[in-house]
Structure formats: C-alpha cells, structure tokens
Amino acid sequence: MITRVRRAFGVLAPEQRLAGACALGLFVTMFLPWYTRDTTAVVHGRLQTIGSTLMAWKAFSFVEAAILLVAVGVLVLLFARGERKAFHLPGGDGLVITAAGAWVALLVFYRLLDNKTGATSDFQKVDYGVSWGIFVTLLCGAALAYAGQRLRHARLTEPPLPGEGPTVVDRRPRGDARRTRPRPPTEMPPPGLDDDPPTAATSIAADRRRAARPDIDGGTQLSFDEQE
Predict the structure, then answer these.
(1) What proportions of the chain, in percent to the nearest 5, are helix, strand and coil?
(2) Rounded CA gap, 181 and 179, in Å?
(3) Where in the sequence is the domain holding 149, given as residue range(s)?
(4) Would you say residue 13 lies in a domain?
(5) Number of domains in the chain
(6) Residue 202 domain-assigned (yes or no)
(7) Is residue 187 situated within a structural domain?
(8) What is 49-104 written as a DSSP string?
(9) Mean pLDDT per segment of 10 residues, for the chain of length 228 residues?
(10) Taking the model in full, what pTM does it have?
(11) How far apart are CA 124 and CA 133, in angstroms?
C-alpha cells in the first residue's frame, strides 16, 4: 500500500500535490489542541479551577466530523487521480477542492462564534474555550481553497472514460480564452472568356477609340460629322 501511495503521489501535478499537502495538514490538525476546558469545583472545602486542553478527537461533533470527511475525501480523490482512475466530477477537481476548502473555513468560523457549551451542576461548572490548534485548521482550510483555485486554472488531462478520448480540463476565465473562428474560403470568380490577358492588337484598338473621342469636362466631345 505504501508503494502505491508513493507511486500515485509521484505522478501528480504540482497543483495536485499542493492540494494533497493541505488536506493532509487538515488531518494532522485534528491532533492539535482545539479547545480549552475549565472545570470549577469545590475541593476540600475550597473552590478550585482545573484547566485542560482537548484535541478534536476528544470533543467530536458535527463540525469535527465534517472537517475530517473533507480531509479524507480530498486525499482519496488525489490518490485515485494518481492511479489514473477514469471519472469526471461536476465542475472539475479544482472546483470541488475549492468548495471543500471554503466549507472547512466556514465550519471553523462557525465554531469560533458558537463554541461548545459547558455544563453546570451543584458540584461543578465546566466552561469551554478555543485554543490555537483551531486557528491552524482555519489556515489549512484557506490554503486548500487556494490550491483548488490553482488547480482550476491549470490545464490537466483527465483520464478518459471507456469509449471516449482524453479530456483536457480548461478552467481559465472566459475573458482569457481566445475564440478563433475558421475563416470562410475565398471565393474565386469562375473563369470567363474575358479573363484572357490583353494582346497588343486589342490594346492598339482601345487606344484609337479613346483618341477619337477625347474626354472633356461634362462628358465626351463629339465631332461635327457625328453630330450630323
């Protein structure tokens, strides 16, 4: 399995490797301290507060599960691309990875605003806060969205499905794409009888006709014999 992972990672494009590194960073941040827990209780007749930190694994909820799913999903996607699996995603891999990074950032922002609620009883009180590990997760989510944007603008050839040719994914903006239209073929006039090059005899005859009737302002001057 390790050999397959190395081989798949070796054939990926630089933009895909960046997205894989960001997804792996998301998975690693699950082991960092995300929350602080302060427990206040009466011990030996005195009120004491004990503080501790919690990883994402020890305070698992919908937010942590969704971030873990994003990290694993992106890694599986890139592993399949490295093994040249034939499938197409709506909008392309870049758009999907960009949306995944934005979703992670939105989840972390929601957790910062709506933190875990504590518990209060007759014997103790538990309060939760956030720690520095959750901010690292926010940075990894933003980096994943950036990697997805780079992947969108890269022209990568996706493995073809059975029965179709290779697909080149072009995610450039429409304003940058050059649209070229084929020029219509130039129509040549059909050859006629008058297309023959003029000869010396025809040129002399034309000069004599022009000399017989000189051009003046307002038209052609006629001789007295022609007026009669």
Answers:
(1) 50, 20, 35
(2) 7
(3) 2-32+61-116+134-159
(4) yes
(5) 1
(6) no
(7) no
(8) EEEEEEEGGGG--HHHHHHHHHHHHHHHHHHHHHTT-----TT-HHHHHHHHHHHH
(9) 80 89 94 86 71 83 92 93 82 91 94 73 72 93 94 79 58 46 52 52 56 51 47
(10) 0.64
(11) 27
